[in-house]
Amino acid sequence: MSTLFFTSDHHFGHKNIIKFSERPFTDVDEMDEILIQKWNEKINPEDEVYHLGDFGLSSSGKLRKILDRLHGKIYLINGNHEKSAQACHTRFEWIKDYHELVVKDDEFPRGEQMIVLFHYAMREWNASHWGTYHLYGHSHGTLADNPNSLSFDIGVDCHDFYPLSYEKVKAIMKTKSWKPPFEKSNR
């Protein structure tokens, strides 16, 4: 049985991201190796991984070698740095700009939970007023989390460089103080 995972902004091969995001790596080779290790610690070959953009900024040949080492079936949401990833399109299940994922989950009304996947943070998204989740990347932890919003930055810079499982995403969302905007008060 596969498990769902979510992540973003690995920037494989991108030397300057170490400085820009103050990543604790001495060089790009160390960064890439640790990112691969942390990915494969969590993800099994049959798992599904939704990557929300900025996969890598190396040559497509180098990126292909990294992709060949990563476990899982990878679905890619385009970020603003995907030229090399798009050249390796056969390694991805699909590449899209935006996706609304429906997860079967008996804890939710109608037995499912929708998650809006986009590289960029949004203040409103489809069915947000009904409790739909929104996961995004791009900001590398620079946006303050909104405890009243069922959204957060799924990027590796925010999660000790690990992908998060659907169960972990759901646990984080349960800590939010979001209330349905059309909820009737007890008057």
UniProtKB/TrEMBL annotation:
Xref: InterPro entries: Calcineurin-like_PHP_lpxH, Metallo-depent_PP-like
Calcineurin-like phosphoesterase domain boundaries: 35-145
Top-rank taxon: Bacteria
Family: Belongs to the metallophosphoesterase superfamily. YfcE family.
Protein name: Metallophosphoesterase family protein
